Amino acid sequence: MSDKPGLLAAKAPSSLGSYVVEVNLKPEFADAAGLTALRMLHDAGIAAARGVRVGRLYDLRGPLNLGHVHVAVRELLCDCVTQEFRLCHGAAAASPNSAERWRVEVWLKPAVADTAAESVRAALGDLGMPEVAVRCGLAYHIAAKCGRGQLDKAVARSLANPSIHLILVHEDR
Amino acid sequence: MPPPAQKNRAPAALDAAELAAVQAHFRTLRREPTPAELETLARAWSEPCRSRTFAGPVRFNDGRKTRRFKNLLDETIVKASRRLNRAWCLSTFQDGAGIVAFGPKWALAFKVEAHSHSCAIEPHGGAETGVGGVIRDVIAAGLGARPVLNTDHLCVAPPDYAGPLPDTVRHPRRILGSVVSGVRDYGNRMGIPTAAGGLWFDDAYRLNPLVFCGTVGLLPAWAVRKEAKAGDLIAAAGGRTGRDGLRRTPGAGPDGNDASAVQVGHALNGKRLLDALLAARDRKLFRAVTACGAGGFAAAVAALAGGRGARISLEKAPLKAPDLAPLEIWLSESQERLLFAVPPRGLDAFAQACAAEGCETAVLGEFTDTGRLVVTHAGTPVVDLDLGFLSRGLPRAEKAAVWTAPKPAGAKAPAREKGLDQILTEGLAHLNVCSREWVIRQYDHEVQGGTVVKPLQGSRHDGPGDACVIWPHAATGDSDDFQGFAVGHGLNPAYGRLDPYRMALACADEALRNLLCVGADVSRAALLGNFCWADPDDPEQLGALVRAAEGCRDAALGLGVPFISCQEILRNQSADASGKTLAIPGTLLVSALAPVADVRKSLTMDIKGPGNALYLVGSTAEELGGSLFHQICGRCFGCAAPAADPRAAAAMFKGVQAALAKGLALSAHDLSDGGLGVAAAEMCFTGGFGAALDLDKVPRRSAIYSDAVLLFSESASRILLEVAPDREAALLKALRGLPAKRVGATMANPVLKVAGLDGRVVMESALSTLKSAWQDALPGRLG
Fold first, then answer.
1. Which residue among A113, A118, A161 places its CB closest to the CB of B244?
2. Three-state DSSP class for A9?
3. B11-30: string of b/e by CB count within 10 Å (b at 16+)?
4. Which residues in chain A are closer than 8 Å to B257, comparing Cβ atoms?
5. Which of A7, A2, A145 lies closest to A88 in space, CA to CA?
6. I want to staple A38 with a disulfide (CB 3.0 to 4.6 A). Which of A52, B515, B534, B717 is the partner?
7. How many whole angstroms separate alpha carbon B618 and alpha carbon B735?
8. Strand order in the sheet with B66-69
9. CATH code linked to domain B605-783
10. Which residues of B fall within a CB distance of 8 Å from A157?
11. CA-to-CA dists, residue B270 to A155, B186, B330, B674, angstroms
């Protein structure tokens, strides 16, 4: 399991834009996927988990500017009535041995076909966007006072599959 | 080309004898094989591409005599099917799927494929790949078939398994959930109904779950034959080629982390490919087609070329990533790709037909008449192989197989501490019997609008159907033709633990019985066999496999129903948490397909009303080995697995079919796990009407003195019929000479009441209690 925050973005050529967009349900909406993830974490041994919210991650790389990204998000990636989005900037938070809130990113490994990303890529083309590379992922915001090792193991047993997924675990701040 | 350090490294898939054969061949050519040639041979000769064990020589000792098979599959199942020589079998054991006639104008292609290892590693992706793979095999059957039905049969450990598991193994609950979602996501998105299948739970599947995915496709009768000709262009269509499925390939993939052992399906690409293929087929724009599955382009080109010859330029293949090495392109197992043999004059029209559906195409090369497979990449030679050596050069080493019948298990004293009602309730709540609604409701079984008999039946649409009936009017475009077809299954590894031969007979019998119960014409049925076994190098495992193959042979001959396709997945064993090797039980899935002359006359299994008679057709014996009853009460009474008599069954099926065709029964249900008790309970609570049974009336082969045996014996070839009072005489006339007796009647009172041999009521259970036990079990165990 890797904890290198810039692993996905690091491969983008510097001349091209690289953006990671996270789309979450607004806090006032119940998060069914989060409830399922919470139960899975409980079953995997994280009894201290109190809540989970699940966000969708889109890693967009190519000749894009911020304007393109905002159009992509508003027109395609985010339902602005029920969802909100943010751009993930800079290095992620540190990954301590224990914390009360965690952020877990789950991405498909580069060699694994990302069919959702292929659909997003085609849809961005339909919106008139430049040709971009897309990868899709999930962000789990987990409220659980537990150790990093315990969480790593539980995530690998429940929310992700290390055979095909890249898992990034950080403290959620 | 692969890096120099890996040049000429022998692929792991070739064993010493095969390497020696390769060495001898290339010695005659006075040159060394290239890595790509070695890999091509390894893939072409591998177990998934070539049935090395099943189609190989076997020395079989059954304790009395030794027999030799030069080709186990050919000399058992294929030989039986040839002997039957049924005219409606249009293509058997040749194409990617078996093809049978479906009326004068149409044909049905049917294939079931088992997946194991990929579903253990990544259950969702593995299941998607399984469904996608079998769909591709069917759409590439003949000159292309339109899928009209998907099936899925899963063998997994109980979802609440609490024992230790190795760290790398996913919990059975997660495997079950992910596999179901994988089947759902691919089938639903392709717009194919998933309407038949089953679930079998056994702890021994915890390391190696089995996922059997099946597809039935409809094609015009003229499109069954295909043949590529020299000069035809080799066109690839569909998804791009990436590094999918390359982890096992030495030298393929820049590093271990970057190569995936698991392919990921893309249903939308699959749909585009299907639409493009059908459009091109109807305009007769290609001469042959095959799916790219295990072995990628390497296996597909060789299959399509036959013995002819082919020339391929790999740089023309559309790629997902620009840095793929030639060997990776050649062997990639990326999904949703088909290879076509296109006459040069039709290429433009073919490309346009594909482009119209958003499906990418590329011409990779052409078929030749040189008998050689010549592959280059930007002018650099990659492979130059004699196709004759590729197809016939595999050395066949004889394997030893031994069968030792298990010692008869001693019957214990009857477990009288459980009453019949308690045994029945526990039986209905058993994981191998209980409601599969949690799974079925996740699948779209209605898309295409032709699912006439659905997987869930009865007044509340929640009872267990025997088989589905499909009316493919959306595919034929003819709403006035009410011909349809039914698909059913038989699987019971518990019998196989006692005797794989009897298991095979029972599975074939059950699959046909299921079809019979929905009104299908089983005299025109076709069977498929999928064998999942452990290590074939273990003589005992192989001996059991031989027994199962012989059982299939005898079932086919006795029932008069041919097999049209078989597949085996072997080496299903892994080290458990303590390091011991855990093998799956030898598992055989028999799938059956039969036409239904008029889908409007199909039958369901729910009781239709009070005051009707219940007839049991087929005789009962004390056969409880591997039964549900033994799992609940321990071994007591007869411990032999049910011994089906295929010839007697064929006569019985003929009589029942004639009776059903005359409309003499209101409902029919086959007796399988849990015997008469479970079958009657299911019919009652599905219909919402009660029934009274008299065990003394049950037809039997020998003296039976126990109510429990009569109620729960799992003797094969038995069907329970609901008959209106005014049809009883006609039914008895139709069933003359068969073991058929009136064993009870239906009633409005919602209870199942059973009178024992002594005439007293030995069981009376409320249907609500029985149904709750049946319905609540799986959700309860899933947590």
1. A113
2. helix
3. bebbeeebbebbeebbeeee
4. 109, 111
5. A7
6. A52
7. 11
8. B66-69, B58-61, B399-402
9. 3.90.650.10
10. 170-171, 174
11. 31, 9, 21, 41
What proportion of chain B, given as a percentage, has pLDDT over 90? 71
pLDDT mean over B673-695: 97
Q: Where are the domains of chain A?
A: 16-165
* Structure token digits, residue B478: 């003819």
Mean of pLDDT values over B568-573? 91
The C-alpha angle with vertex B23 and arms to B19 and B28, in degrees rounded to 5, equals 155
**Which residue's entry shows tokens 């992910």?**
B178
Contact B266 A158 (CB under 8 A): no
Of the partner residues A43, A158, A164, the one whose CB lies closest to the CB of residue B122: A164
The amino acid that residue B509 corresponds to is D
Give the span between the Cα atoms of B16 and A31, in whole angstroms: 57
Cβ(B674)–Cβ(B433) below 8 Å: yes
Do B306 and B251 meet the contact criterion of CB atoms below 8 Å apart? no
- The type of residue at B368 is T
C-alpha distances (whole Å) from A53 to each of A153, A171, B428, B710 are: 19, 14, 39, 55
* Torsion angles phi and psi, residue B595, rounded to 5: -75, 150
List beta partners, residue B700. B620
Chain A residues with CB inside 8 Å of B121's CB?
A: 161, 163
- Confidence (pLDDT) at B409: 63
Instruction: Name the pTM for this structure.
Output: 0.90
Query: B189, B240, B241, B262: best mutation site toward chain A, by most A Cβ within 10 Å?
Result: B262
Longest CA–CA separation in chain B, Å: 87
Tokens linked to A68: 């393109």
A16-165 CATH: 3.30.1280.10
User: B100 CA to chain A: closest CA distance, Å?
Assistant: 35
